[in-house]
Every structure is written in C-alpha cells, then in structure tokens.
Specification:
Elements (H helix, E strand, L loop, with lengths): L11 E4 L8 H10 L4 E3 L3 E2 H5 L3 H6 L4 H4 L2 E6 L3 H14 L3 E6 L4 H4 L11 H15 L3 E8 L5 H14 L1 E10 L11 H7 L6 E4 L5 H8 L4 E4 L9 H10 L9 H19 L1 H16 L5 H8 L5 H14 L16
Parallel strand pairs: 1-2, 1-9, 2-4, 3-4, 4-5, 5-6, 6-7, 7-8, 8-9
Helix pairs in contact: 1-12, 5-7, 7-8, 10-11, 12-13, 12-15, 13-14
C-alpha cells in the first residue's frame, strides 16, 4: 500500500532530520526501540542528487526492512533540480519527500536555501509542485514560523498555498530563522496554521520529555522531535507510550544504557565501515556520558575509540566504574534542520 500521511494513526511521532546524526544507523536504533516512529534522512542536496554526487547518494543509504516508511529530506532552490532529485528518490524506494524550508544556518540561507525560501514564496511553491509532479510521492515541507518575526497573515496564506501546490503535510518549528536555536519555541502560530489547512500539521521545537509532547500536542496531528533524542534514544518510546496511555521505562543507569550504544556502534560500522563508523560514534559516546558525575574524566577515552572491539571494552569498563553514578540533567545544543 502506498504511503500516505493522512492514513497514519494519529498522533504522528516523527524523528527530525539532523545533519550529522540521523543516518541509517541512528534511524535503525530509534526504530528498534520505537517502531512507530516515522524517520527522515539527513537533509540532502537536490543539486547533489542531480549530479549524482557519491557523498550525496551515500546520505540516502537505508535499510528497507528496518526503516520504512522513510522520508527523504532535500534542500535547494532550483525547480528543475528538484524534479530530477524527486525522480531519483522515488527510484531509490523512499516513501515520501520532505522539502527543507527551515534551516537557518548562514551558509544555507546565504545560498537562498532552507529558511531563506520564506522570503521567496513563489519559488517555494514551484519547488513543491516540481517534486510532486516529478515523483508522484507525498511531498511535505519543514519550515520555521517566520524569518525575523511571525506574521500570521503571511504564515497562514503561505501554508495554505503550500497545500494548494501539493504539499501533503507541514512541519513547523516554533522559532523564526533569526532566533536560530535560541530562546523558546512558540507553538501558538503552529496551532493557528492547523486551523486553516486541511492537511496534517506537525509541531517541532523544545520537546524534551513525554510530558512536553502531551502538553504541546494541542490540535496538531503529531510532533517531531530531534535534539532531545541524542543520548536519549528511548525518548520516542516514552512519548509513544504517553500518547497511547501505555507505559515505557527507559534505562537510567549507565550500565543499562551501554548495550544500546554498542548496538548503535555495530550498525554504524555495518553501514560505514569500521574506520569511519567509529569516528562517527565518538560524538554519540560523548552524549552517553553526559549527565553522569565526573563524565569529563572519561570523555578523553571515548573520543579516541577507533575499533568496535575497543568501544566494547572501554564502555563496559566505564559501566563498571559508573554503576552507582547518578545522572544529572544537562543542556543540549545539537542542531536540527
């Protein structure tokens, strides 16, 4: 059966695309803990797909048996390249396409990509139309609620126009592009947009717990969570349980968390090879240590890990040392796109 946002059970729970994090190994880890999560790829260049860049194509590697339905997120500004990219994504077996109109990074915005498209609504609509017509797949849009400020008249009209152009789902992050990742996400504009469109709308921004998700859901069709899952891949299962009235107990002790990170490392090595895979895992091992007393004393060890065998030895040794350690809350600064 063809994928459809409308036919998914509500509320939808989605893993946000995060550059440098939501690769196949990470998505598979999250899905193994919470199978109902809908995953998005890291944001991928439509231009790179047109020219069949090896690095770009590598970003779209995935495991059909473990990750579907899977959404490929693309960015760019040329409708003709979006058409080519969309056809390529369909050929690769993805279930849907997401267009990034939310990334506020300067190098992205300076090229008129990401959130810069909010300043060029006609072009943004053509990108959606191009992807829809070329692929026939559901096309969604992830965006910010504004550039420098929130203009509700513009936001509502723009979102309605995106729907008319063929968008089948919208995800709104409750910050403006100017805010970057500072301040607090404002979900009120997201709730207002939902009142004016007929397609599903997801909210995104500052969801750090199952309680946050329940309080923020409101009239929306679901939520998207990103940064808070780093170092805490059980969060999605906690949220899914809260939405369904079930219960889920996430591991809290360091020894109980280690097997999940070892599994993540195994997946990363499987998909990227040991040299690259273990380099990629170092940042995840650092997140594993966050929140535990004296974590800084052990950080130097994990950032030098170069083999899977070494990872297992060091992490299990640390598990023995930290078996009685108490986790404490720490801030997160990983960027979503």
């Amino acid at each position: 059966m063809a994928f459809s946002w409308d036919k998914l059970e509500k509320p939808i729970l989605a893993l946000a695309p995060m550059s440098g994090y939501t690769d196949s190994a990470y998505r598979r880890l999250i899905k193994s803990i919470c199978p109902s999560v809908i995953c998005f790829t890291e944001f991928t260049s439509a231009d790179g797909l047109k020219y069949e860049s090896k690095n770009t194509l590598k970003q779209l590697d995935f495991s059909p048996l473990e990750e579907r339905p899977l959404i490929a997120q693309i960015f760019g500004k040329k409708p003709e390249n979006f058409a080519i990219a969309a056809r390529h994504i369909k050929e690769l077996g993805f279930d849907a396409i997401d267009i990034n109109m939310g990334c506020p990074a300067k190098k992205v915005v300076s090229s008129d990509h990401g959130s810069a498209l909010l300043a060029h609504p006609d072009l943004a609509l053509r990108l959606v139309e191009s992807a829809v017509q070329a692929s026939g797949l559901p096309v969604s849009v992830k965006m910010r609620v504004g550039i420098k400020e929130v203009n509700m008249n513009f936001l509502v009209k723009f979102c309605s126009d995106l729907e008319s152009a063929g968008a089948s789902l919208l995800t709104l992050h409750g910050r403006t592009a100017k805010q970057m990742y500072t301040g607090t996400a404002d979900w009120e504009p997201i709730y207002e947009v939902k009142k004016h469109v007929h397609i599903p709308v997801l909210g995104n921004g500052d969801i750090r717990s199952a309680d946050d998700a329940k309080k923020r859901l409101g009239n929306l069709d679901g939520i998207m969570v990103g940064r808070a899952t780093i170092g805490n891949p059980w969060l999605m299962a906690e949220i899914a349980a809260a939405f369904s009235g079930a219960s889920f107990t996430a591991p809290t002790s360091f020894p109980d968390k280690v097997p999940y990170f070892i599994r993540h490392a195994e997946l990363c090595v499987e998909t990227k090879g040991e040299e690259i895979g273990m380099k990629e895992m170092r940042k995840h091992f650092v997140w594993l240590l966050r929140g535990f007393e004296n974590a800084s004393l052990y950080r130097a060890e994990v950032v030098k890990i170069s083999t899977l065998k070494e990872a297992k030895k060091i992490l299990y040794d640390l598990a023995d040392k930290l078996k009685n350690a108490n986790p404490v809350e720490t801030p997160q600064n990983t960027r979503e796109v």
